[in-house]
Amino acid sequence: MAEPLLKVEHLKKSYGEKRVLEDISFEVEEGSVVVLLGPSGSGKSTLIRCLNGLEAFQGGTIMFNGETVRPSPKNWRRLRQQIGMVFQSYDLFPNMTVLENILLGAVKVQKRKRDEAARQAMSLLKEVGMEQYANAYPRQLSGGQKQRVAIVRALELNPKLMLFDEVTASLDPEMVRGVLEIILRLAREKMTMIVVTHEMNFARQIGDKILFLEDGKILEETPGRQFFTKPQTERAKSFLESMDF
Amino acid sequence: MGHSGISIFFEGANFLRLLGGLYVSAKIAFLSIFFGGILGIVLGVLRTLHNPLLRLLLRLYLEFFRIVPTIVLLFLFYYILPQSFNINYKADTVGTIVFSLWMAAEMSDIVRGALISVPMHQVESGKAIGLSTVQLYRYVLVPQSVHLMIPATINLMTRIIKTTSLLLLISVVDVINVGQQIIEANSHRYQDGAFWVYGFIFILYFILCYPLSRLARRLERRGKAGANG
Fold first, then answer.
1. Using a CB-CB distance cutoff of 8 angstroms, which residues of chain A are in contact with residue B124?
2. Which of A53, A138, A157 sits opposite B129 (nearest CB)?
3. Which Gene3D superfamilies does the UniProt record give (chain A) (predicted)?
4. Element (H or E) spanning A214, and its range?
5. What is the pLDDT of residues A11-61, one digit of tens each?
6. pTM of the predicted model over 0.90
């Protein structure tokens, strides 16, 4: 059997005395989508941020692409080119055009040729219906449009793994759909992804595996469809009921 | 026209001497702004890094130069350095050093304040695409914070220029010093010499500082437009 793309073992994180993540272990197979669910403050975002080094962790190991991650700043810089991340707050760089936003990582970090990188950027923009905005500035875009560009900015580096941290949480409802459809299409194209979301229908559609977290622990790890019909734990059941979707 | 006070400028080389004094003042001011500015930018960036010891040291440096009055600093460097450390510099050089260090201290605070006002999300977005620390400053933090630095920096520059008027107290032959010499030398013939000479010096300082204020306004407007896209 092939090695999973990402393997997290006994990951621990605490802020001083307060434990935020306790003994987190899970695997992400290449080409699969793992969805993190759980109430606010359960540690979903912290966990996903540990996976590209934005948060330090105090114990456990992360194996990515067959390599145990040494958590040094330099190593994380290298790995971040392979682990794309999109945030809730779609922070495009306001001082650059859409295209410059997308090219920054490719040209300055990956040292690729500008022409080639721009061709890829334009074709990615086209896929998300944003090619006519290549030379616009972020302030001229709506939230949903910005978030689509932010996804393209991450994809431009050709990552092996994408992390989505509540990417639709601060969007107007009518913008949410367009963004989710892009992520669904990535799933069909077999992009490996870890998704934190509160959109239950979306989670059901996209999740090959659901991790249900509470208080920094994984309470339940269940195949996607089964989680929504037959959750294993009472806690997950009441969580699903409270979400009312 | 009779005996007007304005003729004080045409006695001997008075006018040229005043301009010479102005040159000394302006030279010290601009050298200090230049070197202090560069040093201040570097220190300001260092102060945003997460090194507690470095931060503390630079903070102490800033507070020292901010709290101690400029005149005391000038005396300290002018009288105590030669006495206790046997270092002898010309008064002009001492003035330039003190003003540069002062400029650097205050500049570091301006730079630091502007840099840390860039939202954390911007930093994380930059990190997430693999930018190194240097790249993060160059492409994300600095472009988004320069317009915040400009008004305070120009204000600081005009303060430096104006404060060069204290240099006469360590015997720099600056424009004020020259002015006083002229007033005293001509006091028997021009009772209102002080009015004319200081009035002229006022105009000279105005000429030095006003373009900076204008420039500040222009740059700020442009910087703001740039940072917001």
1. 54, 87, 91
2. A157
3. P-loop containing nucleotide triphosphate hydrolases (3.40.50.300)
4. strand A209-214
5. 999 988 888 999 999 999 999 999 999 998 899 999 999 999 999 999 999
6. no
